[in-house]
User: What shape does this take?
Amino acid sequence: MSEGRPVGIVLVSHSAQVAASVAELAKGLAGGASAVPVAPAGGTEGGGLGTSAELISAAAASVDRGAGVAVLTDLGSAVLTVKALLAEGDELPEGTRLVDAPFVEGAVAAVVTAAAGADLDAVEAAAAEAYGYRKV
Assistant: This one.
């Protein structure tokens, strides 16, 4: 952690319910991880399926504690929306990164690692390593 401040985590899905459920799962598997700020950013402002730059920006601002923000996404336009926000340069907190990781497994790894006090580089690495998790 950066001087006791945790890395923030944003979970972007096309579905508000999926984003919220993955956030709940990740925090639960990390023992509650109450010290780690995790925010879902799912769906559109009207509650439909899709992605919203405004919801993503608000979620990132809500979890920013000065140690960086890791953003994990589910599918295509979620990735593109985050990339566009990062390219604009002033829409997301400084130190925000789009993390290339599987959505569910990466979210769990990111929250567990952040809860252990790791910095943004370690949180990103742990989430990315989730691509290697074998199920069979």
User: Anything to note?
Assistant: The longest helix spans residues 16-29. The CA atoms of residues 21 and 40 lie 9 Å apart. The two ends are 34 Å apart (CA to CA).
